[in-house]
Amino acid sequence: MGISSPGIGSNLDVNGIVSKLMSVEQQPIALLDKKTASYNATLSGFGTLQSVVSQFQSAVSGLANISKFQGLTTALSDPTVATLSGSSIATPGSYSLEVSQLAQAQKLNAVGQTSTTAAIGAGGSTTLSFDFGSITGGSFNSTTGKYTGASFASNGSGIKTVTIDDTNNSLAGIRDAVNAADIGISASIVNDGSNTPYRLSLTVNNSGATNSLKLSVAGDSAVSSLLAQDPGADGGQGLSQTIAAQNSQFKLDGIAVTKPSNKVNDALPGVTLNLTKTNVGTPAVISLARDTGSVTTAVNTFVEAYNGLSQALKDAQAYDPATKVAAILNGESSVRTIQNQMRNILIAPISGSASTYTLLSQVGVTIQSTGLLAVDSAKLQTAVTTNFTQIAGLFSNVGSSSDALVTYNTASSKTAPGKYPVFISQLATKGQTIGGQAANQTITAGVNDTLGVTVDGITSNITLAPGTYANAGALATELQSKINGNSAFAGLSVAVTSSSGILSIVSNTFGSTSAATINDGNGKTALGFSSASTSASAGLNVAGTINGKTAVGTGQALLGATGDASEGLSIEITGGANGSRGSINYSQGYAYQFNQLTTSILATDGPIAARKDGINASLKDIALNKATRTDRLASIEARYRAQFTALDTLISQMSTTSSYLTQQLAAIAKNS
């Protein structure tokens, strides 16, 4: 094949012509590249905007929590006496604290053993029964660690059991079995250095005078001799007490207070005390004050966060007429929509609020001509000082009740701000059974000691301790203890009381699932639950209306009706009478509304995501279009080259023919 070069024969610039034609053909691709760059810039702009909105959401989501505006500062003049913390319900003021006694948990030790692993007893199945209660009367010998002439009364929290057999009847095995049972006792082994050094030590986990231990042992006599502990029986105390159970005792503003623990959270409403030292004769001063500083900080944080996002939205849409340069998101309708939504929230007063304040301007936060917010610190401080509790409603979602026995619980995203009247047609009740006749106070094993009991839908059997009880109240305590100590009823409990010898069992929960019934057992008749006059009733849910619409009752809680403006509004009715019960005011503060707005903006189906999805779809279409056009360019160039090469050849041939004819004509003219 011969060597050829386009244009040699005709002087036609085939390469130049094809190159220029291809430049024209490539112009649509250049436009696609330009459009791709523009879309990518816009995509980047939305990514930046999404980040700024996310930062704003992080700021306002924290401020939407009412606790940010209800802080309390606490101080104690002598911090070695106690530590303290406070919540929003605490009343500011000063209180004196004088601690005379710290609470203690009882500690008991067994007699020493020569080994921790040697078997104790024959290994027969033995049941350890742990009961907690109070030791009263008699005397205590600190040398022997034993009581004389005392009595023990169960606190009714329930008897817990541990089984010992030939797999765990060593000192270490008993320790491990007690700890594994998680019954409120911590067991350990102490080496005292004597000839029989290993002593089992039992510590009650809960402090307080009503948490002394009674340990009954049924089974192996050696285990019983080692561990049986009945402080009410002079000859039945195998353990020695080294630390007595006792309550904390202190004076609060001169008022004597006794509590079972050193952690006290109900002496002063909203204040938790952790007592650490006695200070008789030198009272410490508790100082409680509203945390106005945290509220001021929270308001300024809100303003800074809003201004940051507002400025970012403004910059993203900017246009410089001098340079005729527009910002990346200039002209984007979704950005303008977000900006308008923010402004609309900011200029509207808070609805449904019972607060003194419904506009930010009332506490010194105003909108400037630039669209940004500014804080009048003096006005803000005055508002915080004079109406501390009212500030929260401007920023958080807040519910309040006009009835002291009706409490706002929660609201959902479907709950509209407003004032909702409450009407109660039925108060919640607890399930209960009241005996029909006085109980037999003598319980005999195998005769009248078992009962089948149902508590809140759970059924199990219990066995009462045999014996003649001093009175119906003592029998009631035993019955309550056995029910509450039954593992089948974990998380549930009852209260058992007596009146004129008649026992009553009441579930400690409210509502339609609440029940406390005696089903069967050989003790049902003896305890007075088989009489025709025995009364058993299931609990009832609270019933009534919110905003005039029938609400859903569960226990003491009432939930607003689906489809109503009150939907999702949950309130609790803890007492009072049937009938009109005032109203619930529910409002959504600015921080809460902005949190809701930003959540919708950042959602996967929100405006930013939708716009980014649209841009990405356009970029995908452009990429496919570009690929198709790029593939076509090769064939177009090949066609152009073929066409102009053919033209080059034709022109070359015509040029040759022309030269030949010119020569022939010249020859003819010469010869003529």
Question: What labels describe this entry?
Answer:
5-stranded antiparallel β-sheet, about 675 residues, 6 domains, Alpha-Beta Plaits, 40 strands, alpha+beta
Structural features, described:
This protein has 11 helices and 40 strands. It starts with 13 loop residues before the first helix and ends with a helix. It folds into 6 domains: 14-55 and 606-671; 72-102 and 248-290, no CATH class; 107-243, Alpha-Beta Plaits (2-Layer Sandwich), CATH 3.30.70; 292-399, no CATH class; 400-428 and 542-588, no CATH class; 430-537, Sandwich (Immunoglobulin-like). The protein is an alpha+beta fold and 672 residues long. Strand 21 (365-367) and strand 22 form a beta hairpin. A 5-stranded antiparallel sheet has the order 1-18-3-14-15, with no helix packed on it. Strands 23-40-25-35-36 form a 5-stranded antiparallel sheet. A 4-stranded antiparallel sheet has the order 10-11-4-13, covered by helices on one side.
Can you tell me the CATH topology of the largest domain?
Alpha-Beta Plaits
Shape call? elongated
Strand neighbour order, sheet with most strands: 1-18-3-14-15
Q: What gyration radius follows from the Cα positions, in whole Å?
A: 43 Å
Strand count, sense and closure of the main sheet?
Answer: 5 strands, antiparallel
Secondary structure: elements and pairs:
Layout (H helix, E strand, L loop, with lengths): L13 H12 L1 H37 L8 E5 L5 E5 L6 E9 L5 E3 L16 E11 L2 E3 L4 E3 L2 E4 L5 E5 L6 H11 L3 E7 L6 E7 L7 E7 L2 H7 L12 E4 L4 E5 L2 E5 L3 E2 L6 E5 L8 E7 L1 H25 L2 E2 L4 E2 L6 H15 L17 E3 L5 E3 L1 H10 L5 H4 L1 E5 L4 E5 L7 E9 L3 E5 L7 E2 L6 E6 L2 E6 L3 E2 L3 H13 L9 E6 L2 E9 L5 E5 L14 E3 L5 E4 L2 E2 L1 E3 L2 E3 L10 E4 L5 E10 L1 H12 L5 H65 L1
